[in-house]
Protein 1
Amino acid sequence: MIERSPALPRLLLTRRLPDPLMRQLEAAFAVWTNADDRTLPTADLIAAAARHAAEVLIVMAMDRLDAAVIAALPDSVRIIATYSVGHDHIDLAAARARGIAVLSTPDVLSDAVADMAMLLLLGAARRAREGAALIDARAWTGWSPTQLIGRDVTGGRLGILGMGRIGRAIARRARHGFGMAVHYRNRSRLPPDLEDRAVFHEDMRSFLAISDFLVLAAPATTETRRVLNADAIAALPDGAVVVNVARGSLVDDAALIAALRSGRIAAAGLDVFDNEPALAPDYLAIPTAFLQPHQGSSTIETRMRMGALLLDGIAAVLAGRDAPNRLA
Ligand code: DGY
């Protein structure tokens, strides 16, 4: 633990951030950083917050701040700032009840996550995992007319579940970059300028029926929990390709694994999993599962922007002002 000037606001950081951000944080706050750089058990997080009399907590999507944890935080805590756009790990009502402000990182990572969605779409549809494995195993014997035949992404029909900022960034890439016909499901229909000619489906069945490519980009809520289950998979076109850049809780892993094994789903591109990092081990043995270790926002530019947004929000709240990225 490294103490800085006691006059600076006291901040607890649950994971190391990229170096340039660490330098900015250490100039502006008395920082306690989790030296292990692994997800802190919540009891340790609470104890460290109390020991350090932290006013600000910077946490990650893997830190679970449910009502019990929030109730146990020391009175010194004024702000919980999550280094993520997803905030399903924080009980906002419990934070509000204690007068703790909650900040997140919307907008600044939409492009990076949308890029990841396209990587997964292409990687799954074009069988990138199997191709890389062939090369890595030195088993490639040369070009063949029948080797690893995939599906055309260009011109395909794409269904996007969740047309928020990330969903719309995916739609732009798909439509303008790949000439895809974009369909979507959302809590409500978007105005025409945001819709950009994407087709809204009120009905889940009609949405699934056209989704030769399906991308999950909706927040994790009780409504979206296991939205991709055996029934939904049965409603997709045969040989559909599925991508998840949202949260693992949207997918029923057993159902998706069975559908990948049978070929009912041709391929899946997954960046997020239930119980990360202990993803369902069966995925590892399925060559048509193209897997990434929760990398959606992982570019230096994006991670710096996420930090800048949190720092601005923290400064505003500490100065008694509102912040555009304040959730509670
Ligand atoms: C997010 O920002 O929500 C990403 O999934 C990282 O947690």
Protein 2
Amino acid sequence: MTGKIVLLTGAGISAESGLGTFRDKDGLWTQYDLNDVATPEGFHRNPDLVLSFYNARRKNAAQASPNAAHFALAKLAQEHPAEVVIVTQNVDSLHERAGSTNVLHMHGHLAGALCHACQTRWDAPEIMTKSDACPSCGAKSTRPDIVWFGEIPYYMDEIWEHLATADLFVAIGTSGEVYPAADFVQIAAQAGAHTVEINLEPSARVSDFAETCFGPASEVVPNWVTSELER
Ligand code: APR
């Protein structure tokens, strides 16, 4: 029987919910230059472009539904006798809408807004504009509460602690191309965790995993959860 489980999810778990991934064919980074829409410099250069990019993603995410993989992970957390924590790189709320509660959004979330001036956070309106004023300090310096390239991901101290105490580390739907998340498998393995990659195809870090399982998340993840709960 497995003890604490740490799950790392990426865009691939939400792909079958209709949300694009980043590096697949037709992925978001094939349609936009990430330097224009996912960096502080890009936001400073053209806030309208960045805000409209995230307004469109926020609308897509709100219209999407969790798929069988999201629901399976919520079931795992409900039925597994030890802690199950989801560290997600995703900025949609599909894990929560499937019933997961122990979720850490290391790259922020589309449903959040942040004031650049005073760091206040609040629920983002459907459409954000550069003339929006911070509800706390009134400054017209609001941005999506998303962690951009070159910025420090959220919850890192908690994440390091989870990786150090995991019995099982499972990466689902991530290409292993972005750090620090791409290093999590090695850190968990060094701490003694068994490691599993569940993905559509081998990721950049596939050789670091003790076990692999390939196929669409909505099929493979429920089967994996069933087998894990039967252990
Ligand atoms: N089921 C399972 N895996 C899938 C599916 C699917 N239906 N569809 C795609 N995948 C896999 C792809 O094979 C790929 O390995 O999901 C992965 C998606 O990789 P990326 O597009 O790079 O997304 P991700 O790994 O989440 O990116 C990490 O990069 O741009 C930043 O902040 C952004 O959080 C993002 C980070």
